[in-house]
Amino acid sequence: MTEDQPILQLDGLEVRYGAVPAVHDVSLTVNPGEVVGLIGPNGAGKSTTLHSIMGLTKPSSGDVRLKGQSIMGMSPEEIVRLGLALVPEGRHIFSEFTVEENMRLGTMARRTSKGLSEDLEWVKSLFPVVGEFSGRIAGHLSGGQQQQLAIARALVSKPDLILLDEPTLGLAPSVVSVLFEALAEVRRGGVTILLVEQRAQQTIAFADRTHVMRDGRLTMTLSAEDSTEIDRLTAAYFG
Ligand SMILES: Nc1ncnc2c1ncn2[C@@H]1O[C@H](COP(=O)(O)OP(=O)(O)OP(=O)(O)O)[C@@H](O)[C@H]1O
Ligand SMILES: [Mg+2]
Fold first, then answer.
1. What distance in Å separates the CA atoms of residue 6 and residue 66, rounded to the nearest whole number?
2. Probe target for ligand 1 pocket from 46, 91, 194, with the most ligand atoms within 8 Å of CB
3. Over the stretch 170-187, which tens digit does the pLDDT of each residue have?
4. What's the rounded Cα separation, in Å, for the pair 98 and 93?
5. Does 77 lie in the same domain as 9?
6. Whether residue 135 is found in the same domain as residue 182
7. Are residues 166 and 149 in the same domain?
8. Do 61 and 44 belong together in one domain?
9. Which residue CA neighbors atom 29 of ligand 1 most closely?
10. Which residue's CA is the nearest one to ligand 1's atom 8?
11. How many angstroms is it from 23 CA to the middle of ligand 1?
C-alpha cells in the first residue's frame, strides 16, 4: 500500500434492483486530496453508486477498491472502520437528540481518539452550529444547520474519504453558498470528497473533475474550466 495510490476505485460497477439495472459499468477513481463530483438528473443512479461503495447495496458485478483493497462483500460497519463516511441524502441526523449527542455518535466511529479535541475545534470553526447550538435538539435546527451537523458529524469520525449525497438539496441559494464555502475549507483540511449533486454548475466549478451520470452510466467528465460552458453542460444533462 503506497500513499499516492487512489483512495477509491470503482471498476465496472453494476447494480440491479431486481431485473432493472440502476448502475451500469461505472468506473471512476478518487485520489487523495481530490474533490470528485458526480452529477446527473433524478434517478440517474448517483445514490445507488454511493450506497454500493458503503456496502449498503450489493453490486451484481464489478469491484470497489479502497486504497487498493477490494471491499466488495464487506459490511457497512467494516467499511466505515476502513475510513469511509457517508452523509446520506436527506441528512439523517438523530432529530430527537441534541447537537452534542449527534456529534458524540460521530466521534464513536473514529479509529483513534488521538487528535480528537483538535479535530472537534476544526469542525466547530467550519460549522459554527456545532458549538453555538450544542445543547439544542437537532430536529429544531433549520435545514441548512441540520446539513452542517450531518457533515460535521461525519468529519469527526475522521474519514479518509467522505461521500456527500446532495448536501444542498432543499436549501436556499444563500445557504448553499455558505455550505460550498465550508466544503472548500474541508478540502483545504485535506479531506478527500466524492460529492453527489444536482447543482451542476457549482459542483463542476468546485470539483477537480465531475462525472455526469445518466440512466446509470457515466456519460461525460468535466473539469472546473467547463463550468462556464453552459451549452456543453446542458447537452450533458439533456442531450
Ligand atoms: N431500493 C430500490 N428499489 C428499486 N429501485 C430503486 C431503489 N432505489 C433506487 N431505485 C431505482 O434505481 C434508479 C437509480 O436511483 P438512484 O436513487 O440511485 O438515483 P439518483 O441519481 O440518486 O436520483 P436522485 O437525484 O433523485 O436522488 C432509479 O430508477 C430508481 O428508481
Ligand atoms: Mg439520490
1. 8
2. 46
3. 898 988 999 999 999 999
4. 10
5. yes
6. no
7. no
8. yes
9. 43
10. 48
11. 9
